[in-house]
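Lab notebook: predicted structure, single chain.

Context: the supervisor wants predicted structures on file for every construct in the current expression panel, including those that have not yet been purified. This is the next one on the list. No modifications to the sequence; it matches the entry in the shared construct table.
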Amino acid sequence: MLTEWKEDIEKNNTNHSPWAIFRNDFHDFDSYLENLEIKEGNKDGLVPDTTLFCLDKDRNIFVGAVNIRHYLNEYLLQCGGHIGDGIRPSERRKGYATAMIGLALKECKKLGIDKVLMCCDKENIGSAKSIQKNGGVLENEIEKDGTIEQRYWISLL
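Prediction complete. Output recorded below exactly as produced.
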């Protein structure tokens, strides 16, 4: 999955969300797993997070991943939000993102997060639809490095 995804990012300059799954070299799998999640906040502005992979049990293949930030710092409040998600290129437009976000929201609730921020590029219509289908309400749009980013809030109360 990660090889396919990285090739698509390089070839088509596509979004690399969730960034956490590309943070380390997956070829050294033990090290990859050991360093996949941030255990506590650090000086680089990274906050504690949980990374989960989405497995299609029927076909026994990984189709995507989510990264849940346990709280928001100033940067994540502006862009990034609580959840970063993505689907491998060959499995997009099949409903996985919507289902995966729904499951991630349950994990957010377990972490005590009652109001979840999710962000996506305005041009990423599929991502916006997946967020909206999970209750996302557009708060605003901000410009970041020449790109318009949409900020959605999802209430878990």
